[in-house]
């Protein structure tokens, strides 16, 4: 039986206020520009622009920012049937530094973490090829409980799981809880995307890449994609040789915010199209390069042939 939903993106939708001044810390930034943000939201927007049938499962407040979010999602052809609008919490916002490296951020989390089980039906899980979420989304209840519960159900129904392990200590009450929840999700063998910065924060030290891969393979993950910024990417599949690819060369980085999301959007797009792993990586690297040359989101028109 064919599955009509290509990807369910589950997690945070935010208003990103990205600094206007480049290479400035948040305390030095004078002006911010508004963008639609949130890692699973970026993936939803990107994959919809690439032609996939994409649904976002998230929550916004009944306010002007919530209206802005829904308008942008609908314009990008992201299905919003499972986006909940609530009255008692405002739409979440986050302030982000504009940088060529990993940006600093200050989150003001409200509605984004109020994701309930009623938003994710069994029928939706049966109809979906991929169930994607983020470490950010898993960091706060009730979204945390909902996502873990529904991830298990999705796995049992034959839906492939995915996660961007965008770990940040400031989002979690304690490290022990983070490790426990991440390991609980990894039991269901998701496609796993991590970065060197994520891993430095998660492990509290810089570990050799082989040790990182071994840790997550032992946790139950078959495919791990480690992004290395300007150095490209390494991909480890259980019991196979590691694949390495260089980053696409660009003249100037305008904004690194969302580059990882662009990378993973390209990878998931190609994976859903049943392309081989090296082709998945090539498309992912090209989309990341395109994002680095644009402030905010990817351009609305994406030429897949290029």
Give a quick rundown of the structure.
The protein is globular, with a radius of gyration of 18 Å.
What attributes does this structure have?
306 residues; alpha/beta; nine-stranded mixed beta sheet; four-stranded mixed beta sheet; 10 helices; 13 strands; 35% helix; 24% strand; globular
Please give a structural write-up.
- By secondary structure, the chain is of the alpha/beta class.
- The protein has helices at residues 39-49, 64-75, 122-127, 135-138, 143-156, 175-186, 196-203, 209-218, 259-272, 277-292, and strands at residues 5-10, 14-22, 32-37, 54-61, 83-86, 93-98, 105-108, 128-134, 160-164, 191-195, 223-227, 233-237, 243-245.
- The strands form two sheets. A nine-stranded mixed β-sheet has the order 5-4-1-8-9-10-11-12-13, sandwiched between helices.
- A hairpin with a 5-residue loop joins strand 12 and strand 13.
- Helix 1 (39-49) crosses helix 9 and helix 9 packs antiparallel against helix 10 (277-292).
- The radius of gyration is 18 Å and the shape is globular.
- The chain starts with a strand and ends in a 14-residue tail after the last helix.
- The mean pLDDT is 90.
- In one word, what is the shape? globular
Overall radius of gyration: 18 Å
Count of separate DSSP helical elements: 10
User: Overall pLDDT, averaged?
Assistant: 90
Strand content: 15-25%
Strand order of the largest sheet: 5-4-1-8-9-10-11-12-13
Question: How far apart lie the N and C ends?
Answer: 33 Å
Biggest sheet record: 9 strands, mixed
Overall SS class: alpha/beta
Work out the helicity level: 25-40%
Q: Which sequence of SSEs, written as H and E, runs from N to C? A: EEEHEHEEEHEHHEHEHHEEEHH
**Number of DSSP strands?**
13
In the predicted model, the low-confidence regions spanning at least 5 consecutive residues are none
């Amino acid at each position: 039986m064919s599955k009509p939903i290509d990807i369910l993106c589950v997690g945070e939708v935010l208003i990103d206020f990205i600094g206007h001044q480049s290479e400035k810390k948040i305390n030095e930034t004078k002006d911010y520009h508004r963008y639609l943000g949130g890692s699973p939201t970026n993936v939803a927007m990107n994959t919809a622009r690439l032609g996939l049938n994409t649904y976002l499962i998230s929550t916004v407040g009944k306010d002007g920012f919530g209206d802005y979010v829904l308008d942008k999602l609908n314009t990008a052809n992201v299905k919003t049937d499972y986006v909940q609008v609530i009255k008692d919490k405002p739409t979440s916002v986050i302030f982000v530094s504009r940088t060529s490296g990993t940006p600093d951020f200050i989150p003001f989390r409200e509605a984004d973490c109020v994701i309930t089980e009623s938003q994710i039906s069994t029928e939706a899980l049966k109809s979906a090829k991929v169930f994607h979420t983020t470490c950010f989304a898993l960091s706060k209840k009730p979204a945390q409980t909902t996502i873990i519960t529904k991830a298990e159900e999705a796995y049992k129904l034959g839906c492939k799981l995915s996660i961007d392990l965008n770990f940040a200590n400031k989002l979690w009450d304690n490290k022990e809880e983070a490790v426990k929840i991440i390991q609980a999700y990894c039991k269901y063998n998701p496609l796993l995307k991590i970065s060197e910065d994520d891993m430095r924060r998660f492990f509290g030290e810089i570990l050799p890449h082989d040790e990182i891969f071994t840790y997550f393979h032992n946790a139950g993950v078959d495919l791990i994609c480690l992004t290395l910024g300007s150095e490209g990417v390494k991909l480890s599949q259980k019991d196979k040789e590691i694949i390495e690819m260089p980053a696409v060369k660009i003249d100037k980085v305008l904004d690194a915010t969302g580059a990882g999301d662009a990378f993973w959007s390209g990878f998931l797009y190609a994976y859903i199209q049943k392309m081989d792993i090296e082709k998945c990586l090539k498309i992912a690297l090209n989309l990341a390069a395109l994002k680095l040359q644009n402030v905010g989101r990817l351009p609305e028109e994406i030429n897949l042939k290029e």
